[in-house]
Design goal:
The protein has 258 residues and is an alpha/beta fold. 23% of the residues lie in helices and 30% in strands. The chain has a single domain (3-250), classed as 4-Layer Sandwich (Nitrilase/N-carbamoyl-D-aminoacid amidohydrolase), CATH 3.60.110. The protein has helices at 18-30, 52-55, 62-74, 117-120, 171-185, 235-244; strands spanning 3-10, 37-39, 77-86, 89-97, 103-107, 129-132, 135-141, 159-163, 188-192, 195-197, 203-205, 209-211, 217-220, 227-234. The strands form 3 sheets. Strands 5-4-3-2-1-14 form a 6-stranded mixed sheet.
């Protein structure tokens, strides 16, 4: 596919209320434009909660079933992260759910120690790239954005999806790093963030946006407004640019120690 339409949702997550968030997301998507992929923020069903034992779900739990049913009914892919329980461990898991019910899972690698995440969750070990409709996606979650080695493009992906609960107090850093990741990896960058105030009193103002492979912001949501943004990703243009300016070929080799 030479073009893929992405819809990215920015909204005020209802604190620790999965059913209310599911209803809200369903209503918003049912009134949205059709897209090939719908992107939801990090912990879209609870907010950034460390009450993991109360809100963790099994892989076949209610929120995963909700994602599968919604993807099937809309005949599209749905992605976002939830608190997942797996073999007595907890993960901040990015789930990319296809309309046929197939699920691709990425467990967040970099856990936010300053917010207590590293005390509650287990760090993921695998970098995940997945091809959907001919477009290769790298899946990343929030704090991963600060660590460029983990997102290094070895010409193995076209688009990075960053889902986040990134506070308003660090918004400049967020915007700057998103553009940098697009430039250095010669890739589209999709960023989904929330708005509002969570149960810990942390405020979020959005910054949901899409950057092209030159680091230019090509669309963004208005701050503090619930909305979808839409963008067509032109993969042929991306490949033409990489062919003419193949900077990735000169990247330094390295190994990641897990």
């Amino acid at each position: 596919m030479s073009k893929l339409k992405i819809a990215v949702l920015q909204y005020d997550i209802i604190w620790e209320n999965a059913l209310a968030n599911q209803k809200k997301i369903t209503d918003l998507i049912n009134n949205a434009e059709n897209a090939d992929v719908y992107v939801l923020p990090e912990m879209f069903n609870t907010g950034f909660s460390n009450n993991v034992s109360d809100f963790a779900e099994e892989y076949n739990g209610a929120t995963v079933l909700f994602m599968k049913n919604l993807a099937k009914s809309k005949n599209t892919a749905i992605c976002g992260s939830i608190i997942l329980s797996d073999k007595e461990k907890y993960y901040n898991s990015f789930l990319f759910v296809k309309p046929d019910g197939d699920i691709i899972r990425y467990d967040k690698r970099h856990l936010f120690k300053m917010g207590g995440e590293a005390d509650m969750f287990t760090s993921g070990k695998n970098r995940v790239v997945y091809s959907y409709k001919g477009v290769r996606f790298l899946l990343q979650v929030c704090y991963d954005l600060r660590f460029p080695v983990w997102s290094r493009n070895r010409n193995d992906y076209d688009v990075i999806i960053y889902i986040a609960n990134w506070p308003a107090s660090r918004r400049y850093i967020y915007d700057t790093l998103l553009s940098a990741r697009a430039i250095e990896n010669q890739a589209y960058v999709i960023a989904a963030n929330r708005i509002g105030e969570d149960g810990n009193g942390i405020k979020y103002d959005g910054g949901t946006s899409v950057f092209d492979f030159k680091g230019t912001k090509i669309c963004n949501a208005s701050d503090n407004i619930e909305s979808f943004i839409y963008s067509d990703l032109h993969i042929t243009d991306l490949k033409d640019f990489r062919d003419k300016f193949p900077a990735w070929q000169d990247a330094d080799d390295f190994d990641i120690k897990l």
